[in-house]
Amino acid sequence: MKKAILFFLLIGLWTVSKAQGLLTAKQAVEIALENNFEIKLSQNDLKIATENVSYGNAGMLPTATANFSQSNSVQNSKQTQTTGEERSLRNAKNNNLSVGVSLGWTIFDGLGMFARYDQLKELQKQGEFELKKTVLNRVSEVISTYFTIVEQQNLLLAIDSSINISKERLKTAENRFSIGKASRLEVLNVQVNLNEDESSRLRQAVVVKNLKITLNSLMARELDIEFDVEPEVEYDDTLLIDDLMEKAQHYNPDLQMIAINKRLAELELKRVKASRYPVVRLTTGYNLSQSESSLGFVSSSNARGLNYGITASMNLFDGFNQRRNERNAKTQIESADLLIQQQQLNVRTAISTAFQTYQTNLSLARLEENNADIARQNLNITLAKYKIGSISAVEFRDAQENFINAVSRFNSARLQAKLSELQLKEIIGNIDL
């Protein structure tokens, strides 16, 4: 009879597997990494941060400007000269034209430009870790949803096998009724049980379908794409807390981003201190100017040539704002140190609690696996006894429900073990398949 139950399970597996094709957990992750909208948005943020890392954005390169201006006027003019002579002209025209190119270059600003450039590079690193964190979150979500489908699909297969067994029970009950060894009431009870199993299957099928829609959404593809999943939830039972603590120091994105925040605070202090020093700027340019006047001592003039120079400025007193800004920058560094210590404590706490949950779930998975084997054996024995009429339909139904419940708990325990493993790997910042 054990072979019969196995046959029913294989029939259920074949019925499901003929849908569209197997989608592995690795393939689901790859599709999500390629299509997921949040990952694409983080990638765009990183592109912007990368583009911002330039010498020009830091103020280290010269700036060149082209200038052009022309003004015209038509006026009624009247002039009284020093000799007393008066001159007047109606509709006097005046034209002024100026064309030039100017170049400016700040060659020293207290090394503030170098601090700004380093800040831009740190912001780029911050964008990389933001992307990594987004990828970790989405990968974790995809994997947890995928293996939840595996768990619920296995439960659906168990219900299918239960339906097949109930159909066999119904045939047996009808045969016994036809030869007078069972009452009509027993046949009706078995029929009710079969209807209950089919109702459970409909509800469970909806659960699986909705989970597949969710996974398709995470992969950013058509929601109605049908797929099959792997038959088993495989989990890693070899994780060690010391290794997890060590890896978290190197891979945890939150710790890495907080370290960058401290570096940014240190660079901000350098940039603020640069205001204590003079700013030296070189300027040069080439200009052409031309003017015409209908009335005046000079009827037209033009000039062209090169101009150049150097300017220097230094803040002598700004109402103690420089001192205030430096103090605030130092306080930001102290706050960054405190945040690093706080985040390190948070990570250690999260790993410790998650590891305890992980160990408990591993133990539960082993226990429920044993319970599922016992429930399967009990169902086989009960089915054989029911066929020879040594037990009642009610007793067999209890064994059947115990089997479904045991399989459900076993699937749930394996899923929880996988999810707790996934949570630990997400905390340390290194998820592998």
Summarize, please.
By secondary structure, this protein is of the alpha+beta class. 65% of the residues lie in helices and 16% in strands. The chain has helices at 2-17, 25-35, 37-52, 112-178, 184-218, 241-251, 253-273, 321-387, 393-428, and strands at residues 63-80, 86-108, 279-293, 300-313.
Topology, element by element:
Elements: H1 2-17, H2 25-35, H3 37-52, E1 63-80, E2 86-108, H4 112-178, H5 184-218, H6 241-251, H7 253-273, E3 279-293, E4 300-313, H8 321-387, H9 393-428
Antiparallel strand pairs: 1-2, 2-3, 3-4
Helix pairs in contact: 1-4, 2-4, 3-4, 4-5, 4-7, 4-9, 6-8, 6-9, 7-8, 8-9
General description of the model:
This protein has helices spanning 2-17, 25-35, 37-52, 112-178, 184-218, 241-251, 253-273, 321-387, 393-428, and strands spanning 63-80, 86-108, 279-293, 300-313. The chain is of the alpha+beta class and 433 residues long. Strand 3 and strand 4 (300-313) form a beta hairpin. The model is unreliable at 1-19 (pLDDT under 50). The chain has one domain: Outer membrane efflux proteins (OEP) (Up-down Bundle). The chain is built from 9 helices and 4 strands, in the order H-H-H-E-E-H-H-H-H-E-E-H-H. The longest helix is centred in the middle third of the chain and has 67 residues, at 112-178. Helix 2 crosses helix 4 (112-178), helix 3 runs antiparallel to helix 4 (112-178) and helix 4 (112-178) packs antiparallel against helix 7 (253-273). It has a 4-stranded antiparallel beta sheet, with no helix packed on it. The protein is elongated, with a radius of gyration of 40 Å. Helix content is 65%, strand content 16%. Residues 70-91 are annotated as: Disordered. It is found in: Cell outer membrane. It comes from Sphingobacterium kyonggiense. InterPro entries: OMP_efflux, TolC-like.
